[in-house]
Design brief:
Elements: H1 2-9, E1 22-27, E2 30-36, H2 45-55, E3 64-67, H3 81-88, E4 92-95, H4 107-114, E5 118-121, H5 125-131, H6 133-141, E6 145-153, E7 159-160, H7 171-183, E8 186-190, H8 191-197, E9 213-217, E10 235-239, H9 244-252, E11 256-259, H10 269-278, E12 283-286, H11 290-298, E13 304-310, E14 317-318, E15 335-343, E16 346-353
Helix pairs in contact: 3-4
């Protein structure tokens, strides 16, 4: 199963909105076939592994397949993998986890068992869950898994008071940040960041065939038509008030304007996350300023923080979150450290809020 997870990781940047799945077929302790899920509409991991076995001249009848998620049992973009496994005559199937998709949810394993194939599940389940945390979130909650990234000095400054921020962290941390961007299906930022930094917010330095969808929270539709983020792949601009002329110009350039106002005349952030889930976005990567960061946290839209801390002190500057002061320490928002690692000279902290679905 550990090897199957390694194969699944090879599909990190290509399978969305499908999960990243790996499959290893074994006979007498020897791997006779292996594969991972291909881009949506193409072969799943089990099919790839059986094709690999055939290409090697190996017969899969009676062999054991280790797969990192329960084989699908429904017709989606491709036929059911459970049918293919039955027809191929596998003797045993071991799944890391049951598929949370309501269209599967145990039916794949049940179909295999009914055909006389030995089945089991629950091997390295935690690792399999982590690999597809966004897919599980979307299937169970209807929401993407939202990861908010910030880079700061050790005293918590993300920029100088004048806005200068390039570069607080080192090149290794910046490259690592692009890898996290690449695994997301969408990158969310705010109009403040667009106006201040004019970023591209695309993936660079990572070999990926898919660029995440760029999503700009822009309540009053202030974005300039010459903003660099609007170059290249189409963006989704989320507004709270109509602006017919600007909307027409953005649409003519290939972008989509989504109106999601709340009662305060701002963008309804929880509604935005529901809409992204509806659009089959598994993981959201947020790179924004302190105001939008704070609003997302305050509205309960963030599942985890991806924080890069540089070994430096800046003093007064711009902070990570423009949250209001608390009257009581008991009102602090609790997180737990999920992972802490050195990346170059910097520290990378993955911290999760204590209440999201995991």
């Amino acid at each position: 199963m550990a090897l199957a997870l390694e194969w699944a990781a090879r599909g990190m940047y290509i399978t969305a909105p499908n999960p990243r799945i790996g499959c290893v077929i074994v006979r007498d302790g020897v791997v006779i076939g292996a594969g991972h899920t291909q881009p949506a509409g193409q072969a799943h991991a089990e099919i790839q592994a059986m094709r690999d076995a055939q290409a090697r001249g190996n017969d899969v009848r009676g062999a054991t397949a280790y797969v990192t998620l329960e084989p699908c049992s429904h017709h989606g973009r491709t036929p059911p993998c459970s049918n293919a496994l039955v027809q191929a005559g596998l003797g045993r199937v071991v799944a890391a986890m049951v598929d949370p998709n309501p269209l599967v949810a145990g039916r794949g394993l049940a179909q295999l068992e009914a055909a006389g194939i030995a089945v089991s599940a629950g091997v390295l389940a935690e690792q399999a869950h982590e690999l597809n945390i966004g897919f599980f979130s979307r299937m169970r909650r209807g929401l993407p898994w939202v990861r908010l990234k910030v880079a700061a000095s050790l005293d918590g400054a993300t920029a100088l008071e004048n806005g200068e921020s390039q570069w607080i962290t080192g090149p290794e941390a910046r490259a690592d940040g692009h890898a996290w961007r690449a695994r997301a299906s969408a990158i969310v930022t705010g109009i403040g960041t667009v106006k201040a930094d004019d970023p591209q917010l695309n993936v660079r330095g990572i070999d990926t065939p898919l660029q995440p969808r760029r999503v700009i929270v822009d309540s009053r539709l202030e974005i300039g038509l010459d903003a660099r983020i609007l170059q290249g792949e189409p963006c989704w601009i989320v507004a709270a008030a109509p602006h017919p002329g600007k909307e027409a110009a953005l649409r003519a350039a290939g972008h989509e304007v989504i109106q999601l106002p709340n009662r305060s005349g701002k963008v309804d952030l929880p509604a935005l996350m529901r809409e992204l889930g509806r659009r089959e976005i598994n993981e959201v990567h947020v790179e924004a300023g302190s105001k939008l960061n704070a609003s997302l946290v305050r509205e309960g839209c963030v599942d985890e923080l991806l924080v890069y801390l540089a070994p430096s002190l800046i003093g007064p500057g711009q902070g990570m979150f423009a949250l209001p002061p608390l009257a009581r320490l008991a009102d602090q928002r609790a997180l737990r450290f999920h992972d802490v690692a050195r990346v170059g000279a910097d520290l990378r902290i993955l911290a999760r809020f204590t209440n999201p679905e995991e």
